[in-house]
Specification:
Layout: H1 5-21, H2 25-31, E1 37-42, H3 49-52, E2 60-65, H4 75-87, E3 92-98, H5 102-108, H6 116-129, H7 131-135, H8 140-160, H9 163-170, E4 176-183, E5 188-196
Parallel strand pairs: 1-2, 1-3, 3-4
Antiparallel strand pairs: 4-5
Helix pairs in contact: 5-6
């Protein structure tokens, strides 16, 4: 119980398999990380960033939390964004949600869930902003799917509203912020056609002079 032997054994097998196909992989990987992508995704165990896009370690810098929220009070997330943008010089920030998200579903009911209720208020706000859209839907799954998508769009906006990203744009940096969603049922990513690449594409209210 104290030592998860199966995980250590699987780790050894994985490392050996990688070294057989590329003997210098880990040595080269240990020298630096130079990813072009920051992935902000959900903590859900079924949505692993690297596997979804079939990329090896070192290619994607990753931050994950419940329902892929980017809150202006979350110093953890903001620190990740700052490091990715200012130190790693990533060119793309991807906010990726997924259908059937438990955090989204929890935000839509009126039950008490404990400490997480404070976190879910960020998503409840998104629901409130778009209340009229949900009122036209009868099917519960359609409502959950719609909130999963709208939540991604909102978090893309929150990324763009940070001083970190806006300062990068002001300095002439090439940086794009994307909104995607993943379907657990078939393993396919969907582009939500949200891609922000500069200050002129965000609202005047949030644009820093």
């Amino acid at each position: 119980m104290r030592v998860l032997k199966n995980l250590f054994e699987q780790n050894k097998k994985w490392a050996e398999k990688v070294k057989q196909s590329d003997p210098g992989f880990f040595l080269n990987l240990s020298k630096q990380q130079n990813p072009e992508y920051l992935w902000i995704g959900c903590s859900d165990s079924r949505v692993p960033a690297n596997q979804i896009v079939d990329m090896p370690p070192g290619e994607i810098f990753v931050h994950r939390n419940i329902a892929n929220v980017v809150a202006h009070t979350d110093l953890n997330c903001l620190s990740v964004i700052q490091y990715a943008v200012e130190v790693l010089k990533v060119k793309h920030i991807i906010v990726c949600g997924h259908y059937g998200c438990g955090g989204i579903q929890a935000a839509m009911d009126n039950k008490e869930h404990g400490l997480i209720d404070n976190w879910l208020r960020n998503i409840k706000d998104v629901y409130r902003y778009h209340q009229t859209k949900f009122d036209t839907l009868q099917n519960e799954r359609e409502k959950v799917d719609l909130l999963c998508e709208l939540n991604v769009v909102e978090q893309v906006a929150n990324v763009c509203h940070t001083t970190i990203v806006q300062n990068a744009w002001k300095s002439g940096r090439e940086l794009a912020v994307h909104g995607w969603i993943y379907n657990i049922e078939d393993g396919i990513l969907k582009d939500l056609n949200v891609c922000i690449t500069g200050l002129n594409e965000i609202s005047d209210t949030h644009r820093l002079k």
